[in-house]
Amino acid sequence: MSKKVLIVSTSLRRDSNSDLLAQRFAQGARDAGHQVEFISLRGKDIRFCTGCMACLKAPRCVIQDDAAAIVEKMGAADIICFATPVYYYELSGQLKTLLDRANPLFSADYAFRDIYLLTASAEGDDASDGPVSGLEGWIACFQQARLAGVVRGGGANDPGDMAKQPEKLAAAYEMGLHI
């Protein structure tokens, strides 16, 4: 059965390592016959949550920027895959900001059940512990969702370094293929 897969690549750097992983995940999901939409946050206007909580009364955020459309797509997707660079052993600020802005989904009839995470870090694979924990905290707010898989892309600092790690690219592809 074909599923709606949304991939959100959060690196702002061109040819980023997390983006390479996301592209391989996307190819695996496409090869499995799923409908795949790939969104890059590069060039997007995504502002910080102001904590106004208006989204608890209306099913959307009142801030007029690119986040609202992305959050709407998140809610409609069966599967979401986030790809993030690891900064100071944490999720990228862009991803954290998007997750904060996804608060309207908390009380919505969201479709997603499985969430995947792809990380790229200069340090080893254990540098992704913080991002995994951070995303698990967000997922914990959605009772029907779970963290279904993670590819930890440690040891990739410069743009394109991930291409030198075919086993990580293969893992991302296989994860997309078997969703």
UniProtKB/TrEMBL annotation:
It comes from the Bacteria. The keyword Protein transport does not apply. Residues 4-123 form the NADPH-dependent FMN reductase-like domain. Pfam families: FMN_red. The keyword Flavoprotein applies. Keywords: Flavoprotein, FMN. This is Flavodoxin family protein. The lineage of its organism: Bacteria, Bacillati, Bacillota, Clostridia, Eubacteriales.
